[in-house]
Amino acid sequence: MAEEEEKIEPTLTGMPIEVHIRRHSQFLLVLTFCFYLGWYTFALCLIAWITGARWAENEGHLERYNMDLVWGRSFLMWRTDWGKKFIEKISKNKPFWRRVGDVWVVTVFFIMIFMFLLLVWQATLAWQIPKSSSVSPKMMIGLPGLNPVIPLWYGILALIIAMVVHEFSHGILSRVADVKIKALGLLLFIFPVGAFVEPDEEEMKSMKKWERMRLYAAGPGSNMVIAIIFSFLFSSVMVASLEPSSDGVLSANVVLDYGGEEAGLEPWMLITEVNDQIVSNSEDFSNIMNETYAGQVVNVSVLNKGNPETYEVVLSDKGSYYQKYYPDAYKDWMSGKGFMGIAVVNPELVVDSLANPGNSGGSMLQYITLPFQKLQPFPEHFTALFSPSGIVGIVPDNLFWILANSFYWIFWLNLMVGLTNALPAIPLDGGFIFADGITGALDKFKSGMTEETKEGIVDRVVSILAITVLFLIIWQLVGPRIVGTETVTLDADIDASMTKGWSGDVFEFDASNSDGDFVTYEWTFGDGNTATGVKVEYNWSQGGLYVVTLTAKDAEDRQSVVFQEVSINHEESGSGSVSGGNEDTIPTTITPYIEDVNIYINLTGESGFPLVQSDITVTITSPSGVVFEEDYLLNNNQQQYIEFKTNEGEMVGDWEISLESNDPASDFSYDYNWFTYFKDNS
Q1: DSSP per residue over 501-547, as a string?
Q2: 439 or 506, which is more confident
Q3: What are the residues whose beta carbons fall under 8 Å from the beta carbon of 434, sequence distance 6 or more?
Q4: From start to end of 381-448, where are the E strands?
Q5: Residue 18, CB half-sphere, CA atoms under 13 Å: how many?
Q6: Three-state DSSP state, 488
Q7: CB 536: neighbour CB atoms within 10 A?
Q8: Which range of residues forms the domain containing residue 559?
Q9: Which DSSP state fits 236?
Q10: Burial 91-127 (b: 16+ CB within 10 A, else e)
């Protein structure tokens, strides 16, 4: 009988394939997750790292250098004796370090409570966040290169400092308690992601609870100290030395679809002149802009990254902007004023807010949360606007900015490491402090309880709290996707019977085509008057360009706002008579967006005597001065027709027609028609 042929299993390096799959399952799962999220570069780096590290382990290279793979054979742990002598030396003043440790324990305890309550509060926000705006997983990973808000090289430097300070502090308090340090080391994942001090576990178990709490509190406590120190160096030393390089105002924000943005103005430009008028501060800018009118063309001189540039800006209507975006702040005087769409701030205030973040809670919060707003402490253009002065000014500019950025990120990452490690969840320092705190409380108030029972209670409480903290963190990622607000369609719409007409014409406005479950419709017409209802009618008594605003609200007071510009031409007519030696004046005010002014006057002499003429002077005055002046001699019942038209010059403002009798016998009568035509600004 022929022997059965032996089956050969496919192998890689002599090991069955299924064993490889089983041993590398965690890695394969993470790799699949990375490809799913589109992290292709990180996935390739991960493949290279894992492959190289596991090859080095299999070949015995790691063992020779006191290295081994941990945590799914993905993280490289390097142990060394380097640093033991330094820790031994610096820890000799034990009374000092015990007092410092006491302060750290109390500080970390309060931070622990604050961070837990913060997580709970953030968890409640999941119901208010739109599902499409949930937190990206990248934002939860505080590693440079993965977290998009942390600059790679500044982040690596700051993270290494944070880790070394954290772990060396653990080592110092270990030696203060006479606990042996077995080794120090680094934890690497592509690049350093952690550091550690490895005290003797058996000796730690025999430590007094308060001494052990000091040891655990030393890490986050020292990170907070470093954060405070570098916050001072960044703000009170580096930033406080900065002075504006030139006079002017900083464009802090540029509104889309308004004159400044359309002309090409951008944030972080320094505005130095408007229409050849020097701008030294925000007050100068406001005063100059208040003298302009909508539709006016102004030249704006700026410094862009230190280079002088000039932009031609067509000004919009300030009143219409406020009616559109800030109706509660709208004032009648704003209508017709020029609006550039640029929010300005004095450069000194920018420096002051960074140099003195503790002046207000808002400034401090903004100071800390700059990275989460995807902002750098010194955005692009900043270095061209400011330069160091005083003693710090002797530092070369390039080095100054490197140091300033380094100080900020050392402050920020130490703060984040300290706050994170204070969370009451094992294996974080806060978790161990919490566990010892619970044990101490039971020892004090439940002295008759067995040690086994106490340990069981502590283990359950600590485990529940750790799971709760982990859930709260994960909930920030998945919560909004599960219970977040659904997108609600709210799209108000205005259907106007016409958009151009004459004063006195009746306009009809209909909101029936609005998309959304609206229950109220509020209308404003740009002249201070309002109305409510799905359909409304309105007429304007004066000419001008008006913005009709519809604010539609649903039952939950959510709203949609839409606008419709309406151009109203105006006709004014009248008649009168002037006795000898007297004068009649006809005043009016013309608003912005005027296109044409047409005036027609008919004079009739009424001296009462066949040979006596009426001596009449007709004067038309515009905002720029007298634009028409003529004298007429009219016999009794003789008529004179006058026609005046203009579409140029200064037309916005106060106008006046003067009809003057130049002697006692010069009686006359008149009638007039005054037409003003306004542009369609849309």
Answers
A1: EETTPPEEEE-TT-BS-EEEEEEE-SSS-EEESSEEEE--SS-EEEE
A2: 506
A3: 112, 424, 462, 465
A4: 386-388
A5: 1
A6: coil
A7: 18
A8: 495-567
A9: I
A10: beeeeebeebbeebbebbbebbeebbeebeebbeebe
The radius of gyration computed from the CA coordinates of the chain, to the nearest angstrom, equals: 39
| Whole-number Å distance between alpha carbons of 366 and 234 | 15
**Model confidence over 270-324: pLDDT tens digits?**
999 998 899 888 899 989 888 888 888 899 999 888 889 999 998 888 877 887 7
Final residue before a domain boundary, out of 450, 483, 516: 483
Same-domain pairing of 55 and 150? no
Which residues have C-beta within 8 Å of that of residue 450, sequence separation ≥ 6?
Answer: none
Residue 484 pLDDT > 80: no
Token duo for residue 574: 């009248």
Q: Judge whether 342 and 282 are in contact, CB under 8 Å.
A: no
CB burial of residue 25 (10 Å; 0-12, 13-18, 19+): exposed
Residues 67 and 95 both lie in one domain: no
The pTM of the full predicted model, rounded to 2 decimals, is: 0.68
| 605 residue type, one letter | G
Looking at the structure, do residues 519 and 599 belong to the same domain, yes or no?
no
Same domain as 235, residue 272: no
Residue carrying the six token digits 């009424």: 606
How far is 269 from 628, CA to CA, in rounded Å?
A: 44
Q: Report d(CA 534, CA 552) in Å as an integer.
A: 9
